[in-house]
């Protein structure tokens, strides 16, 4: 696992709250009565936070905070209309014998294939290897597009390791073929950071988000914790952390050119 992956695992909820709560509970168990109550209360707050992050309400609010206002929209005419479709990778899964695209990557491929049939635009798949021994995600994505959706990928960008490199390397490939604008397919919660990455290098990216969300209504079922919503909350918090890192890093960095 990369240093970035370790950091996002250790310093984001729920693991960060688990560690804090557990440490507070252990110290409270051997401490003096006065501080013990304070530490026990702190531990309870940490574990309550984990429960809240596992509710559909909190997970939905976090996701909506990233994706509201982003809509799928076909561009009919423009000064620089899209002439390709870029699909960003998400994750892989390991099967009994090999690797395959993960569920989120498959969702993006499905949306991109439908858009390609609708617009007759060529596809670029973007994603490098998550580990040295793994095949590039772009290769797995191209195989899935051809086998599952009968859509070939014209370009395979096999080197990128993060969203910024997705943008830089994909734009470089398309510009080499005289293309200066494209649809970009990724999940709605990931789209703002993606668009900023393309904007920074001067490439026109038109959003085609997957799974746009409405804010939760707050009904009773929205407050029942479930493990899958805890994962959704973690994804949203990681995305907010990524946007913060990009904003701090890009504030002083010179604008990149192709």
Itemize the secondary structure elements and their pairings.
Blueprint: H1 3-10, H2 15-30, H3 33-53, H4 56-67, E1 85-88, E2 92-94, E3 99-101, H5 103-119, E4 123-126, H6 137-149, E5 155-157, H7 163-176, E6 181-187, H8 191-200, E7 204-210, H9 227-252
Parallel strand pairs: 1-4, 1-6, 4-5, 6-7
Antiparallel strand pairs: 2-3
Kindly describe this structure.
Strand 6 (181-187), helix 8 and strand 7 (204-210) form a beta-alpha-beta unit. The chain has two domains: 3-65 and 227-250; 74-211, HUPs (Rossmann fold). Helix content is 53%, strand content 12%. The protein is an alpha/beta fold. It has helices spanning 3-10, 15-30, 33-53, 56-67, 103-119, 137-149, 163-176, 191-200, 227-252; strands at 85-88, 92-94, 99-101, 123-126, 155-157, 181-187, 204-210. The chain starts with a helix and ends in a 6-residue tail after the last helix. It is elongated.
Outline of this structure?
The chain has 258 residues and is of the alpha/beta class. It has helices at 3-10, 15-30, 33-53, 56-67, 103-119, 137-149, 163-176, 191-200, 227-252; strands at residues 85-88, 92-94, 99-101, 123-126, 155-157, 181-187, 204-210.
Any descriptors?
alpha/beta, 258 residues, Rossmann fold, 12% strand
Look at the helices and sheets and give the structural class.
alpha/beta
Strand order of the largest sheet: 5-4-1-6-7
* C-alpha geometry: elongated
The CA-CA distance between the termini, in Å, is 30 Å
**Beta-strand residue fraction:** 5-15%
Record field, number of beta strands: 7
Task: Spell out the CATH superfamily of the largest domain.
Answer: HUPs
CATH architecture descriptor of the largest domain: 3-Layer(aba) Sandwich
| Total of helices | 9
CATH topology of the largest domain: Rossmann fold
Helix fraction by DSSP (H/I, runs of at least 4): 40-55%
CATH C-level of the largest domain:
Alpha Beta
Number of domains: 2
Low-confidence stretches: none
**Radius of gyration, in angstroms, nearest whole number:** 21 Å
| Largest pleated sheet | 5 strands, parallel
- The topology string of helices and strands comes to HHHHEEEHEHEHEHEH
Question: Which quaternary structure do these chains form?
Answer: single chain
> pLDDT average, as an integer?
88
